[in-house]
Amino acid sequence: MKHFNRLFTQQRLFVLFLGIMLVPNIFLCFTEPLPLLFKGSYLLIPGALYLLLLNLSRKPGITFWALLPLHFVGAFQLVLLYLFGNSVIASDMFLNMFTTNSGEAFELLGKLAPAVIGVFLLYIPALALAVYSIRRPDTLRPLFRKRVFMLALIMLCCGVFTYTPAHRKAPHIARLDNLYPINAFNNARFALLSWRAAQEYRHTSKNFDYQAVSTRESNLPEIYIFVIGETSRAENWGLYGYERNTTPLLCARHDIIRFDDVLTQINATHKSVPLMLCPASALDYDQIYRQKSLITAFKQAGFHTAFISNQLRNGSFTDFFADEADCTLYLTAPKDTPHLNDNALLPVVDSLLHSQAPKQLIILHTYGSHFNYCERYTPDCRRFTPDHIEKIDRKNRQAMINAYDNSIAATDQFLDQVIDRLDRTGKTAAMLYLSDHGEDLLDDSRERFLHASPRPTYYQLHVPCILWFSPRYTSQFPHDIEQAQAHRITPFDSRVAFHTLLDIGGIATDYRNDKLSLVSASFHPGKRYYMGERNTPIPVQHIPFGKEDRHAFELHNISAQ
Fold it and tell me: What's the mean pLDDT when you consider all of the chain?
């Protein structure tokens, strides 16, 4: 104990605490494309502030414990750097903490063990040493504190000195609010404000009215199904030219219209799905707080509406929109089963199709290809093996790809069965499938994994989109099918879902924009946008893609704008 006391003096603990607080800044200096001079500011200015904060108390452990929120953000930042390889914690990552269910979180944490263990080994012992610092009878010497104060002032002056020319050279990057942890806490604040605004949604949207009407005969039987895909990227669909035929059933169909160049507006479910369901877009996301979904428009036009989800409620706009439906159902798995496969949605579809409602809109929110992939399919879809993922790394990549491809095969089977059920009704019917976003699967030297990263990749943005029309719909509205076929290779984004479904359903409202309807002769989607940090719309051509992404866009003949 005597040696321990000599080793961990208050002065040495002070230095140790400073070093631990600077760890995220050090990593970010290597991972972020910052100007060289700004990297100096990135360390010097926060370092000076940390020195001053630790110097507030004669026992640095007191301040270190008081800064617990900072350590939590630091740990979160380091885990995300391990996961994505770069970028400061985005506001959407904070929102994901509130909109990701516990089952998904534990699935992911199990595969991030090295990062989680690493941050525990960094921060838990440090917090224990902070308790030791508090309980020690001695304190920091006055001379030490005076020298620390002088050092902090020198570091702050040097930081400002390097910041000024860096800001002049790169004013959009070298900004004080782009220093960690200022940027992380600003993003957390924005996430909190967004969350609070969302909780007021029912009040802010209560007077919204589509004034929607059907342009078709009231006795015309119509059924439209919108299948919302989950984490399915076009890259791994046989229908899109993948080397493995992961979609044999859809490929065998001659009544499928496949759209080749489709991008999501954002790579996170809690925003991408709502943006499919309402008029708001990446260009004007804040409109979503005042709007209702297409479910309300269909209801006003005389449709019976249903929203059936294989996911759990998460308090996002998806839930708010789902509750607009006449029938809202979230499937729950038995206690001994992690998750239900999407085939569990089919009996509910059968029940709805056999109802007496002449006009129906059915929205199916699937679990699709969400991690953990090997839990998303039944044994008959286990075509590629081995598919057990022990660890997320290059060594286990083939097993990961096999499991992911099996989940695509399960989606192929599911969609084929939905189409078959619609076909057998003999009614005027259509199905639209669109995935919310794609996924990174350690595709290149960057070894990116999952989705929702602050900087999107080609693999997260390029998503599959297909349309199917029943024979009766085709005979009644041949112009719609001709237009959809004509737009197969036109670049567009997920904005089209809302407007296309209204057009297919023959629903008139001032909120329908036929320039964004796949079945309209007026279709002209224009420039595509991605919703960036703090809901800022970014033209796709201005996204800071890596060279690997640009190569992928070119390889697959997909427009990067």
Answer: 93
Q: 331-355 burial string, b = 16+ CB within 10 Å, else e?
A: beeeeeeebbbbebbeebbeebbee
Q: How far apart are CA 80 and CA 74, in angstroms?
A: 10
pLDDT of residue 163: 93
Calpha distance 143→148 (Å, rounded): 9
Distances (CA, A) of 28 to 16, 41, 156, 190, 522: 19, 12, 19, 21, 47
> Got the DSSP string for 217-280?
-TT--EEEEEEEE-S--GGG-GGGT-SS-S-HHHHT-SSEEEESSEE-S-S-HHHHHHHHHSS-
In SS3 terms, 352-414 reads as HHCCCCCEEEEEEECCCCCCCHHHCCCHHHCCCCCCCCCCCCHHHHHHHHHHHHHHHHHHHHH
Identify the pLDDT of residue 334: 81
Which among 413, 414, 404, 401 has a CA at the least distance from the CA of 366?
414
CA distances 45 to 41, 156, 305, Å, are: 6, 5, 56
Q: Look at strands 492-493 and 262-263 and give their pairing.
A: parallel
| pLDDT > 90? residue 454 | no
Tokens, residue 448:
């990116």
Alpha helices per DSSP H over 426-470: 458-461
What is the helix (H) or strand (E) element at residue 191, kind and residue range?
Answer: helix 182-199
3 state DSSP class of 20 = helix
Confidence class of residue 336 from pLDDT cuts 50, 70 and 90? Answer: confident
Reported as a pLDDT band with limits 50, 70 and 90, residue 435 is very high
CA distance 545 to 459: 11
